[in-house]
Please model this.
Amino acid sequence: MTTRITIRRPDDWHLHVRDGEMLKAVLPYTAKEFGRAILMPNLVPPVRTREDAVAYRARVMAALPAGSRFTPLLACYLTDETDPDDVERGFRDGVFTAVKLYPANATTNSAAGVSDYRKITRVLERLEKIGMPFLMHGEEVGADIDIFDREKVFIERRLSKWVKEFPGLHMVLEHLSSKDGADFVKSAAPQVGGTITPYHLNLTRTDWLGAGLKPMMYAMPVIKTACDREALRKAATSGAACYFLGTDSAPHPFARKIAINGVPGIFNAPVALATYAKVFEEEGALDKLEAFTSLNGPKHYRLPPNEDKIVLEKSPWTAPVEIKVAGADERTLVYRGGETIEWKVVE
Ligand code: DOR
Ligand code: ZN
Model:
């Protein structure tokens, strides 16, 4: 039985670290284990322009622990008004790594997202031209669309068309949550890649809703069936280059997370790598872990993989239930908090 593995340092291609005190509280968990991360721009207000991104990056750098070698990569929040010239300038001078689509009102802080797809054509044309990645919260929102079908309908109505309309556009369907999503990415690779979260690999909607309502397991896209989870596990552990790590770690203040009208988002950074390792071990695929965590992502983004390594060991520990955030009795719940975690990053 394998009890120790050494892999190249992973990157997180989908991460929310927020701002202010929350940023300071959560960033160290990612910076400790990951080389780089794409920081999601759904702040209040969002990171919409190159200027917003320069300022946000400075706040992120200031929140990093002393001596950290972590590199934040920023995404531009796409709106109906996004200026292709501003995006291109930001990409050329390294301020932006990608552009992120939030369909309006699809999830947390997405009110300023895209409400009229005709208005983003010029941006998509520009991204295609300059080779800049386009990241998608791939859910179609509407009163007529069942929440469990949002990903599938987005693929049917939007993504399958964009793949043909913009053949040179390099895309990522974020947080794959369904068999439909995993299958589509495979069929459209290498033009389209897909990130997969630890919680979509680990949970089913029965875990979330079947034995008491667990607000901690509420995220967008919602956790789906055992069949979907099975397809995602097979995809992630297949070694196929189109699938890679994106934790979607998304902290919220405790009170908002457990409110009557609770917010979607699962803070999993403290247990993310350990949870991926558990899933790969359960699937008998620890030999494919490094491809998923550390090689496929950089390849899709056309960046070199990290040079240094980390070591994971089978050495049980208990995840903290919550972490403190400075300010008035503030805290955020940790995914798998209180559980015995099998794997641990030891070096
Ligand atoms: O569950 C989610 N939370 N899904 C998202 O897409 C956004 C995220 C957040 O920002 O909290
Ligand atoms: Zn996200």
User: Anything to note?
Assistant: Residues 14, 16, 40, 248, 250 surround zinc ion (ligand 2) (CB under 6 Å). The domain at 9-305 is CATH 3.20.20.140 (TIM Barrel).
